[in-house]
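Researcher: Here's a chain I'd like modeled. Treat it as a single chain, no partners, no ligands.
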Amino acid sequence: MLRLDLARLGREGAVRIEASVPPDDALLDGLESSFDVPVEIRLRGTSARSGEVIVRGSIEADLRQPCRRCLEPVHGRLSAEVTLVFVPAGPSAEVEDDGGVRFFDERAGELDLSESIREELILAIDPYVVCDPECRGLCPRCGANRNIETCSCTDEELDPRWDALRALREE
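Model: Modeled as a single isolated chain. Structure tokens:
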């Protein structure tokens, strides 16, 4: 779906790619966030004189994530600018994936951008979203949402394995 036609890029010098990725697409599987509407992707691929392919554009989406403190859903807007640089690997080059450079086969007819866009999407999503800066979270003992209810748990340590240390502290 997110493919850049290298032959067309060679002829025209620049190619636009626009896609609406549905929320149930495999590209979005396994992410902690869920999407209510399609993820909008707008890219422009250009070729450099050195043979590199440069893809720039934006990713925009409405997403829903669990609050890191109370697990209630938090709705937000994702808007990320991306720049991807693909370097030709050549037919006999040994390519090691070090995560910093993306390689492509010059002989291929097209360049699949899906995995690179997925990586950029993962990096753009805030992993520490909270519903409210004053969110009190869940009780570690009973699991009650402290924003909604008050639990009767005490903060006193009742674990008998600590009794020997408590006795030393009291001496």
